[in-house]
């Protein structure tokens, strides 16, 4: 059960409440004398409530100031030891990481589109057009293998081993023989049709 106090200005609210109410609502009119008594009590309590709200606001501000002071003290202590402010040099920054990935890439012409200077473009054209000597080809293949091996050793812990599959074992496992659907089985008995 609930009680809704409605004045003249909230008539539309009362109509909405009556529409949604499942049980018939009881309406009573409160005399003005009783309303005035409660209004006076509320007016008496109003200064006390304002004081309480001001005190709560002051306490909240004190707490925020204390937390800021604690943070500042911790920073001062940490700066004296100078361990937290030390730069972490063992991490790569973004440019170093990109350079490392480019170095470990097998093919210089990867899917990644990047801006190539004129000199690099000319060198690539020379490499494509001029036939390499046998020594150059051997060196290039060795570098490719070395890069591949480093990539495999770096990523071997994160990748799970694949299940090995043999074509011979797949064929020799006892599986039901395949039979075309069009030919019926040889030993099938005739079925009776039911009469209606």
Q: How would you describe the overall organization of this protein?
A:
With 196 residues, the chain is an all-alpha fold. The chain has a domain at 8-81. Helix content is 57%, strand content 0%. The longest helix has 50 residues, at 32-81. The radius of gyration is 43 Å and the shape is elongated. The model has no long low-confidence stretch (mean pLDDT 77). Residues 74-196 are annotated as: Disordered. Residues 74-110, 133-144 have a biased composition (Basic and acidic residues). Residues 180-196 have a biased composition (Low complexity).
Give a brief rundown of this model.
Residues 180-196 have a biased composition (Low complexity). With 196 residues, the chain is mostly helical. It is built from six helices and no strands.
Give short descriptive properties of this protein:
196 residues; mainly alpha
The termini sit apart by: 65 Å
Strand percentage, roughly? under 5%
How much is the average pLDDT?
Answer: 77
Tell me, briefly, the overall form: elongated
Give the count of helical stretches.
Answer: 6
Sheet having the most strands? none
Biased composition (Basic and acidic residues): 74-110, 133-144
Biased composition (Low complexity): 180-196
Region (Disordered): 74-196
Indicate the topology:
Elements: H1 11-20, H2 32-81, H3 94-104, H4 118-129, H5 134-155, H6 167-172
């Amino acid at each position: 059960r609930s009680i809704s106090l409605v004045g003249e200005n909230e008539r539309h609210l009362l109509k909405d409440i009556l529409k949604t109410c499942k049980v018939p609502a009881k309406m009573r009119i409160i005399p003005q004398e009783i309303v005035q008594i409660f209004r006076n009590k509320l007016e008496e309590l109003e200064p006390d409530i304002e004081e309480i709200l001001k005190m709560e606001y002051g306490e909240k501000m004190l707490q925020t100031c204390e937390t800021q002071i604690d943070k500042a003290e911790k920073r001062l202590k940490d700066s004296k030891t100078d361990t937290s402010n030390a730069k972490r040099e063992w991490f790569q920054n973004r440019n170093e990481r990109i350079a490392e990935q480019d170095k470990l890439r097998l093919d210089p012409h990867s899917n990644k589109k990047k801006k190539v200077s004129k000199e690099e473009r000319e060198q690539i054209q020379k490499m494509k057009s001029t036939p390499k000597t046998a020594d150059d080809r051997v060196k290039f293949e060795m570098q490719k293998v070395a890069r591949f091996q480093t990539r495999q050793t770096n990523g071997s812990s994160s990748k799970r081993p694949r299940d090995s599959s043999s074509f011979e074992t797949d064929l020799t496992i006892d599986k039901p023989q395949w039979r075309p659907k069009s030919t019926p089985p040889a030993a099938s008995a005739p079925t009776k049709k039911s009469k209606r």
